[in-house]
Amino acid sequence: MTTDDRRDNEGPPRDNEGPPAAPATRTTPPDPPPLRTALTDLVGVRHPIVQTGMGWVAGPRLVSATANAGALGILASATMTVPELRAAVREVGSRTDAPFGVNLRADAGDAGERVRVIIEEGVKVASFALAPSRELIARLKDAGVVVIPSVGARRHAEKVAAWGADAVLVQGGEGGGHTGEVATSVLLPQVVDAVGIPVIAAGGFRDGRGLVAALAFGASGVAMGTRFLLTSDSTVPDAVKERYLAASVKDITVTTKVDGLPHRMLRTDLVNSLEKSGRSAALLRAVRHAAAFRKRSGMRWSQMVRDGLAMKHGKELTWSQVLLAANTPMMLRAAMVEGRTDLGVMAAGQIAGLIEDLPSCAQLVERIMSEAYETLDGLAGVRSRDPATSPTVL
Known about the structure:
CATH topology of the largest domain: TIM Barrel
Shape: globular
Mean pLDDT: 85
Largest sheet: 8 strands, parallel, barrel
Oligomer: single chain
């Protein structure tokens, strides 16, 4: 639930709620051999798989489990204070020696302070939901941090590549949360052909076949949100996971009623009621949620106004949309942390309709890589067939 153009990367749940989580280690079948790509070389992971920085989901437990499985875990940070971010980074570091990343909002008023935490704590990767400035990219790169912005259009990829980004994560319209209209199969080759840096494909991926398809398009790996949300290492409440597992592809919709921008999520009674609500009711709800978010995050109203101005400028939003955007963190939190499927929204990629189980991160990554090798072997077999004796394959 990648990645995007997105503000759904709004920070992880606090892992100190409830009993301490067990260390993110699993007994699994033998790890498949690493599949070396430009992404694995760049960030130092075994497998070309990324777990995206999903708001209220990608906390220390999920990120460390992903990292220990040989993939790249991304810690979501936007709803944490700066001290909470530092503590979360250190918790991940206590659980794994593998590389991991932190997702940031480039337009946040305290982005500079968060970058300082990343640099001081030795985080390997900085990912961004919105394009970082040229200066921010340079500051991170000078400190040896790998910079990977998320983009939803070719022109955005070209811009950040020219500014020095090390790679880009490209989310097609199938992705969860804030999303665009162009399918991954159309957007991905556009970006691959336009930039000379590694491209990570997001939107519509869940298995080894998808990984091989992305590699065939020229990507260096895949990023997945919804698939990692639906693992046993995810801290999302069981009742919420059950709603995801019960969903069909027809139960996933795109609405603008949460924050004024296209947002892909599970269709629920709440979403239906939001779509029927009037403008004044939506704005009143946004004000209430903005006040709740300010209280929880410790942000001053002045800082929230500055962030709103940055959002308005960067996205060309109306003030009504900026105000509505206050809905997103608290409505996601209601579901992803509190388990309130009646009061919260559940961002979901279209792929959610095909997911039927809750493996551990280790089991998931092992399965994806095994499927990828099986798929590659099958394709090699197709190529080696004698066209004179083999049947036509359509």
